Amino acid sequence: MRARVLVVDDDPALAEMLGIILRTEGFTPTFVTDGEKALAAFKEHRPDIVLLDLMLPGMSGIDVAKAIRGESGVPIVMLTAKSDTVDIVLGLESGADDYIVKPFKPKELVARIRARLRRGDDVTPERLEIGKPGLQVQIDVPAHQVTLNGAEVKLTPLEFDLLVALARKPRQVFTRQVLLEQVWGYRHSADTRLVNVHVQRLRAKIEPDPERPQLIQTVRGVGYKAGLG
Amino acid sequence: MWLRRLGQGVGRTADRLSRPLVDRFRASLQLRVVASTLIASTVLVLIFSFVVAGSVTSGLLTERQDTAVEETENAVERAAEQLAPYGSTTDNTLATTMQRVVNELAEDPVYAPVIVLRTAKGDVTKSHPVSGVAVPSEELQAAVADRKIATQYGEFTLGDEESMPYLVVGSYIDLNIDYELYAFYPLESQQDAIGLLRTNLALAGIALVLLLGVIAALVTRLVVTPVREAARTSQRLAAGLLHERMEVRGSDDLARLAGSFNLMAENLQSQIRRLEEMSMMQRRFTSDVSHELRTPLATIRMAADLLYDNRDDFDPVTKRSTELLQDQINRFEDLLQELLEISRFDSGFASLEVDAVDVGRIAEDVVEGLSHLAGECGVIVTVKKPKRRVIAEVDPRRVQRILRNLVSNAIEHAEGKPVEITVAEGDTAVAVAVRDHGVGLKPGHADRVFDRFWRADPSRNRKTGGTGLGLAISLEDAKLHSGTLQAAGEPGKGTLFVLTLPLQSGNRVIASPIPLRFEAEPAEAATAADKADKEVPHATKD
């Protein structure tokens, strides 16, 4: 089945070009030029992935990302012409899983989309556990289900992948570069902002006190590990 | 011995006690003014008191002396009348007469209460028993013997009374027998008057000095308070509280000070606000330009890539055109990227995203990422780094960018010879050295390589078509970390770049673990960091 891509961008030329590229690569794109209409289009088309421009007329890309996150955990890749840290971190915090700065190479964009769509291939039953009694996270990998002390926690697919990567090898410290490679599919990148922001988002969902994390601990100067209490 | 120790101890204690006082004295203008006023007024009051007391005393005594002399002359006349008949000291009645004369004179309230009459032979008749200093003094007796009227001041104890000051007037009575008459005038009232004067002067003096001290304190307070307020206000201004102002009261000099201070603050504030606005505009402009240029460029980029991927289907002319288009879009993209980065530095909006990361790992990642370029150029790149991690609080993206710039630069200019990268850690800093053995630098070019759009050899054909901004941006990136980036080289023998960054963000680089010392021999250059003990060769012939 061809993956559905919702493209939210106000530049018609760019949108058309994106359409050509995406169709060539075997995706089914839908286009919206206005932030206001993005959410309605999202509900109507139920895309597998969203490409979202940050600067939009009507409703900003940040707000669109938040609105979509309120509905579902579908992967969002930001297209941004701004490479300032503030803009990128703001976009990631509002719910985007990844970002790509304009101008980008088509192959790079396609690789990012594929990386975000590549999932659900695990069929071997795998159950993971981190934490201690009273603060226990259980992960049912094939079912994409996470429970914290028995109560279900809604995670986006990216947050889920991040948690699974850490939980598969508890106590092992993962550097940000390794996580970028395993979870995002990047190589040779030192953009640790992606990892930092998403670890924070994950902590906000599963840690009782995100300021003093117990389940996902920071190892200063190295990276992160899934803690055991 | 113990005395000296005690002395030293006392000295030390006094030192300890006086030091804060001295400090306070130095620090407070008010204290200084009050203290000097007190000292000056005390000296003045003391001088004034002495002069006044002296002149009043001498005035009083002179007056008393004049009347005393006059009275004594009268007494001498009266005594002479009664003593005239006696021709010899052997007369029996003489002593009785003398005593009578003395008693009469002493009882008469006009004359001195105490009279001493003496014949030249030494028979003394006194109205009272007189003791005290050689009464009357030899000097006085000598003067009287010379037939003069003379005076003497002195303390005498008469009878049972307490010792009192007296004025003694001595006179010679020239008769058949020679007599000397000494009259004692008490100076009690004068002494009382002088005592009262002294007390009053002392009281008035102390009151005056204190009053002057208080006045000085009040006046300096009037002046110092606004000055202190100005100091406080300017401190707050300096701390960034641009809305701080001084209170303007009245229309005196201090009010003018406050007024002009406020004007200055006002101007400063508006200047800063203007600069802030300009900076904001610059930032927004950069951001807008970035967006407006990048969106169409993204479309062009994708279209060109699509064409480029299908270039084998085109006729040779179109194919070559597509290739040129692709190359130049790459170049244009790099240039735009770096121009925006430079303008971000220029507008002061480049911010450091600090993370504690392994710098050695970043260096290895950069070399791995550039292995394709190294392979194209036939350059072998090696990384030497310490076994343990070199954790530094840096912005990993920026460090990666600096190293990518330095390494790709080195590969381009290496002319096929090996490139060595050395990571070393010091106490406070981490350094990365990038050394090639290629083209090298002409004398004087070591600093210019960091200039924007500067090229050592304009005619040189460059493989990757660098923008000319890479090293300028790298230098800015290093400066943003409070670090340094230096270059050294010799023509034909290669170039050495040393990047030094503080281990802890916010610190400065004092000394680099790798000194910038260019050695022409490759073997020597490799010893630049003895701490490096792990060699990671990156075979790049692929």
Polypeptide structure, described:
The complex is a heterodimer of chains A (229) and B (542). Chain A is an alpha/beta fold. Helix content of chain A is 40%, strand content 23%. Chain A has eight helices and twelve strands. Chain B has 542 residues and is α+β, with helices and mostly antiparallel strands. Chain B is 55% helix and 17% strand. Chain B is built from 13 helices and 14 strands. In chain B, the strands form three sheets. In chain B, strands 2-1-6-5-4-3 form a six-stranded antiparallel β-sheet. Chain B has a six-stranded mixed β-sheet with strand order 12-13-11-10-8-14. In chain B, strands 7-9 form a two-stranded antiparallel sheet. In chain B, strand 1 (114-119) and strand 2 form a beta hairpin. In chain B, helix 6 packs antiparallel against helix 7. The longest helix of chain B has 57 residues, at 253-309. Chain B is rod-shaped and about 175 Å long. Chain A: Residues 125-228 bind DNA. Chain A: One of its GO terms (biological process) is positive regulation of DNA-templated transcription. Chain A: This is DNA-binding response regulator MtrA. Chain A: Pfam families: Response_reg (PF00072), Trans_reg_C (PF00486).
Largest sheet of chain B: 6 strands, antiparallel
- Class of the largest domain in chain A in CATH? Alpha Beta
How big a fraction of the residues of chain A is strand? 15-25%
What is the CA-atom radius of gyration of chain A, in angstroms? 18 Å
Order of helices and strands of chain B: HHHEEEHEEEHHHEHHEEHEEHHEEHE
Shape of chain A: globular
Instruction: Give start-end ranges of low-pLDDT stretches of chain A.
Output: none
- What spatial form of chain B do the alpha-carbon principal axes imply? rod-shaped
Structural class of chain B: alpha+beta
- Termini of chain B, distance in Å? 91 Å
Task: Estimate the helix proportion of chain A, in percent.
Answer: 25-40%
The number of domains of chain A: 2
